[in-house]
Amino acid sequence: MSAPSFSQAVAAHFDQLCALLFENLRSGEDVNVNLAAEETLFLRLNNNRVRQNTDVRQSLLSLRFHGGGRSVEQTLTLSSQPAQDNAAVLAALARCRSEAAVLPPDPFQVLMHNHGSSREEFTGKLLAPEALLQAIVGPAAGCDMVGFYAGGTVIRANRNSKGQNHWFATDNFFFDYSLYDGPKAVKSVYAAAVWDPADWQANLVRSKASLALLQRPVQNILPGAYRTYLAPAAFGDLVGMMGWGALSAASWKQGRSPFKKLTEKERRLSPLLSIDENFSMGLAPRFNDLGEVAPERLPLIEAGALAHLLVSSRSAKEYGLQANGASGGESPRALDVAPGILAASDVLAALGTGLYLSNLHYLNWSDPVSARVTGMTRYACFWVDGGEIVGPINNLRWDESLYDALGPQLLALGSEAEISPETGTYGQRNLGGMRSPGALIEGFNFTL
Amino acid sequence: MTSISHTVPTALQFACTQVPWAAVRYGRECTTHRVVRNDVAQTNDTSIDEGAMCEVLLDGHFGYAATADLSAAGLQAAFSRAIETTRASSARKAHAFAARQRPAFSGSYRSARTRDLDTTGLAEIMDCLLAATAAMKGVDTLVNRMAHAMLVQTQVDYFTSAGAHTAQSFDMVSLNLSATAAQGSESQTRSWSRTGQWGGEVFAREATVQQAQRIAAEALALLGAPNCPSGPMDLVLMPDQMMLQIHESIGHPLELDRILGDERNFAGWSFVKPDDFGRLRYGSELMNISFDPTRLHEFASYAYDDGGNPATKEMLIEGGILKRGLGALESQERSGIPGVANFRAASWNRAPIDRMANINLEPGTASLHELIGQVERGILMHTNRSWSIDDYRNKFQFGCEYAQLIEDGRLGAVVRNPNYRGITVDFWNRLAGVGRDDEVHGTPYCGKGEPNQIIRVGHASPPCLFRGVEVFGGQA
Questions:
Q1: Which end of chain A is least crowded, N or C, by CB within 10 Å?
Q2: What is the radius of gyration, based on Cα positions, of chain B?
Q3: Closest Cα of chain A to B168: distance in Å?
Q4: ipTM, 2 dp
Q5: What residues of chain B score a pLDDT lower than 70?
């Protein structure tokens, strides 16, 4: 008999710990339990050579306790040693009780229910370290490639004492990389569940072709307003700012939403723009940290008007709204921007004279009330004249209101949307991603 | 002594049958968040994160494997994974290192505090937070009143096969208050924070209530204030904005791993080149910047970095001239540039990289009154609100929460939505006055690295005067 896989071992351990917690609850108490586990190989490359390799195995268990109208949460790292973890979760339960005895009541506590059960498992085929390194760096020989590989099994699970039970496990990887030619660079990501040498080769060939364009003479563009095409990754970054409080119901109610004017119908965006939370893309589990299952598709912006804010059940209770499966932070988990009609082959002609931006960098609200965002251009960004690429630009700072750039100044959306998988690894590998087309915008404002 | 000290020797012995050098970095961090919003206890979360990073040196390459199973068998399994991956990687290593990049020192550190967080009761903390949000209550336009306390207790032990053992413990607190005033479509937020290596003494009720009342009044004042004017003008930055200015335009560009290109796929490169050290005029002669892990109560004070190297105060920029980089022993070996002890990991499950620690602007001689008195037409800004800078750390744009005009050497009207922008070296050469009274600030949320790491950094600075900066306000 072969040893259980990481996923099987974690599942058995999680089930046993949950059973222990549930059987130790007293009358009037409930617990909601989340698990985030992974076994991941991280490889960091600089100049096509290995700078650091790190193998990580970890399981984090979070326990939300309700008792006497109080709410307390405890999170602990599991050792995978049964006796030690049994003692640790019971100690966490005891801490919850002792804190609940001191805390005031939580008037917006969301009572636990059984929101159902689900099980999704996506198996992949990942390469062992030696074969993997050869597969990555071999085709990139001679390139100044800087990159980051993260691959392995990622698990999210949720159970509660009312009987709810969700499990999501996926084997996958991404290789997020940049090719440099002196100070200029192009950016791409290759992500899948099975390493396919032909797909990686094709991805690299596209990046090398973009890099060749950067060898043309550098154009020094002065600050000003320019007709601008944002390629899918760049437009995705701009739209992604909506995840910083703009679509959150709590943020709106607490006076902090950059989309207050949109929510209250003082402003609207372009009728060309429609955005959904779309879990059918399969990038993230539909259940949230309370085990509530979000609709497969939730319209957020419809033809430029706000359709729904993301409403957590806590916000729903506090503000008398209808919850829609949002997580506690009310950030999108699977943004999907509907494509338009501008074909990729027509982009340069439609742009005519202006700026083509492959990527943006370091975005932040600069004036939240007017939904104004600042950021930089980065990677393959070009000056285009008469529908022809003239040459790369020196990077520019921009400062622009979403009400303008995604409003009357939005001229067209690309006909093909591209998926950008989530590559965040703060503390743990994130799941999710978004899908976005490119966008042609008139008078985008560059300031420095 | 932690229980892991019993399993580490066996695990190191196991590893050293296969590699010439090995180490275990054990970490345990207990983090508690308490949030009171509009008089309701909203968040009471505690996490206990504990594990170990097993590290090997094989064929001149350092490699890592992390585990939360701290038994001897668990550590040995992690060492086996580290050895397998490092063996595969070493043929393609970026640089050949040696055990001298992990010097064998032993010692301990305990962060400064008056009262251990262990002995600070939940009731006392909640009383302080509830009193703070109650103190912000007044008019209906104060729509959001928040008090947030983050308490962190960290233990890091580093053991090497060469016999080194460092043990460091830290109590840290971040106490944050914010008040949001909103009316119609306008909204303004004012905040205050106290962050660093502190204990329970931070939860002083009366002092916290005073800050809460101040920021609530200032949020209301902002709501009725005119927009910040636009144009070039003299700018006085208070310490709680100097912190961000130092962090983004000095700290990050001086990181040697960044200059060596490790970060080019994520945070970016640097305008600073290796041959700039000892030559580049980074700023005016008034500019003196230190790396100071010895200053009490700053977030990133420590005795040893996560490679076991003793940490000492070093000057990075003196009289405006760039002298030294923010790079630990590996980066110093790769670049030949003098550095500091800043090899730091965010947690047990991440490998150390070059990080900022405490990066401070050394005080000058002027009082704040004297700085303001030197300004004919200008503006004074408090507290960072918005930040963005390019991947080479040149073109920045920062926004603040609160500002006052300066006319003929005197503080005047409050204005809202203050922002400014500039280019790093040009900006620092506009430094025309450095205050004498510095304040300690910092952030627990500095992001860098692949895999990503969030780390705590400290920045102490006095108020500073800059001449002729491009200032602007919000959208009309």
A1: N
A2: 24
A3: 21
A4: 0.96
A5: 1-2, 476
